[in-house]
Write a structure and sequence with these properties.
Largest sheet of chain B: none
Radius of gyration of chain A: 20 Å
Structural class of chain A: mainly alpha
Oligomer: heterodimer
Helix content of chain B: over 70%
Distance between the termini of chain B: 50 Å
Number of domains of chain B: 2
Order of helices and strands of chain A: HHHH
Largest sheet of chain A: none
Helix content of chain A: over 70%
Largest interface: A-B, 65 and 85 residues
Order of helices and strands of chain B: HHHHHHHHHHHHH
Number of helices of chain A: 4
Shape of chain A: extended
Radius of gyration of chain B: 20 Å
Shape of chain B: globular
Distance between the termini of chain A: 42 Å
Number of domains of chain A: 2
Strand content of chain B: under 5%
Chain lengths: 111, 234
């Protein structure tokens, strides 16, 4: 088996297993009506906003802020996403509008 | 009876149809650009079936990240699901074998539909739940696969389309910012992410950022909670 097939396949299976684990965990641990441990409750409650913030950073990890255009296309497009979303609260509009704006910016403005 | 169930479930899932097709196509195009054809898209959306994690996955398919990191990253990204399941333990148990599929397919969108539906009394709740869950995943699988096929034949310049992933996370970030009483968790994540990126570099920053966030959140959980209750009191 070539690694071009085996590596991604292995990664997919690990991610699939871990994803199922998070969905199965509450049933495995607390299916019998047991009390949820405090630390699990706390992390389940407080971790998601922190992880999403890290993922926003993850998306910007390859942006060079010190050389032109200094991440301007990203900042402008994120501003548009935020504006659209706070205004209309419509996921499709915010994501679609922001992506089209970014594509126009990198293809036509900051070339 | 069955036809009415399908009709009801289909109408309920229409918003998810639009959202999943759109995000699925975006995922498929990105995956295709990364060098994986529609069979991969079909397989991934079939057995992983998780929006944000699938987008993160594209960058990891080539390997390079250790298995422990991979598992911890997935568990963290999906940690909110632990709470979704808690609301449905009894109901899914009562569904027998179909209950296993319900556990597997409990995405953000399916969860919010199941919570929000007012099922008419002449319909069987279990059948409606199962039909809704299956319809949602079928939209996602079709979207992802279609995107990967389209990605190969698309005629216009798709440079920058990967921003869809950034936009997705910014939208979730705003939703959580508005929905959470305390902004400390979001700020902790942002701070840890930024510092870790500078210290460890683009290829290795996620795991240290996650570990630092978990430690900080557990250390300051008292003051985060206090801030919440004070705001409630005001």
């Amino acid at each position: 088996m070539s690694s071009e097939f085996a590596t991604p396949m292995l990664v997919i299976l690990v991610v699939a297993g871990s994803t199922f684990l998070t969905r199965f965990l509450p049933f495995a641990l607390f299916g019998g009506g047991k009390e949820v441990p405090a630390i699990v409750k706390t992390l389940g409650e407080l971790l998601p906003p922190a992880v999403i913030a890290i993922l926003v950073v993850y998306c910007l990890k390859n942006v060079h802020f010190l050389i032109p255009p200094n991440g301007l296309p990203e900042f402008i497009a994120i501003g548009i996403v935020a504006f659209l979303h706070i205004w209309k609260r419509n996921n499709l509009l915010s994501i679609g509008g922001g992506t089209v704006a970014y594509m126009l910016l990198v293809q036509m403005v900051f070339v | 009876m069955t036809k009415k169930t399908w009709q009801y479930a289909f109408i309920q899932t229409l918003p998810v149809l639009c959202g999943y097709l759109f995000m699925g196509i975006a995922f498929g195009i990105l995956l295709q650009q990364a060098g994986y054809n529609f069979l991969w898209a079909l397989f991934i959306s079939f057995i992983i079936y998780a929006g944000s994690m699938q987008f993160v996955l594209i960058g990891l398919l080539g390997g390079g990240m250790g298995f422990l990191s991979l598992i911890l990253l997935t568990l963290s990204v999906q940690s909110r699901h632990i709470f979704y399941g808690l609301s449905f333990i009894e109901k899914f148990k009562a569904m027998g074998k179909q209950g296993w599929y319900m556990v597997f397919s409990l995405t953000d969108e399916t969860y919010s539909l199941l919570c929000g539906m007012k099922i008419p009394s002449d319909l069987n709740e279990k059948k409606v739940f199962f039909t809704v869950a299956m319809l949602d995943q079928s939209y996602w699988v079709v979207g992802c696969t279609l995107g990967a096929i389209l990605g190969g034949v698309i005629g216009f310049d798709t440079t920058g389309i990967d921003f869809a992933m950034t936009a997705l996370f910014v939208v979730i970030f705003i939703e959580q910012w508005v929905g959470f009483k305390s902004h400390i968790p979001a700020l902790v994540g942002m701070g840890c992410g930024a510092v870790s990126l500078v210290v460890f570099g683009a290829s290795a920053f996620i795991l240290p950022a996650l570990i630092a966030s978990v430690c900080l959140l557990l250390m300051f959980k008292g003051s985060i909670r206090q801030g919440e209750s004070q705001e409630v009191g005001q």
